[in-house]
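Hey, resending since the last one bounced:
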Amino acid sequence: MDYGEGYKRAHEEARKELVAGRPGVMAAASGVAYQEGEADHGVFQVPYLGRNLEITYPEGVVFLDGESAVVSISIVVLHYLSRSVGPLSLADPLRFQGVPDASAYVSAFRLHAEIPLVERFGDHGDAFLQVVEGLGGIPQGGETGGDPDPEVMWEVPFLPHLPVGVRLGLAGEGLPAECVILFPRRAAYVYHVEDLAVVGELLSARMLEMACSR
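The structure tokens again:
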């Protein structure tokens, strides 16, 4: 995902926000570990969709599994660290189009985040279940004690205190398949709408990547 010069400027602003924060406070609010080093330097350790992010402080350099992370992931996790307010709940989920100021991004979000999931999993509920369970997803609602149901909302821990919901509607009986991504309602007031758009795209890309590897 290439977001051009404007996105690079956003990256620099996100780094400045990180530097302005207190590492211990940010680690507690975001539910991550912080390893303090010498001379007020340190490293945040952040679980991310079955992978590991390391963010240096105060430099704000982001590594994914030991390699430099792409700018989209970097901005999202830097904002996550500097803006987290503790655990968010999906008890009252919100689709992306319900996020304030999302109107300019809805079509792109649908095209890049949700439609690829429809195309891959709309006729393959078993593959969907393998992926969401592999990401630590937890089903919300539906029958308990039975077989996992792909058509309930699955809560996936995108970042420790930022869960994302995914719900699949399988094709059948003349109805097309559908897949939607949902956010905690409070997330819409904690993070930028652009951040949530990228979160959806990153989750979708990770799910497709895992599906291809199985």
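The first strand starts at residue 33 and ends at 36.

Sorry for the duplicate.
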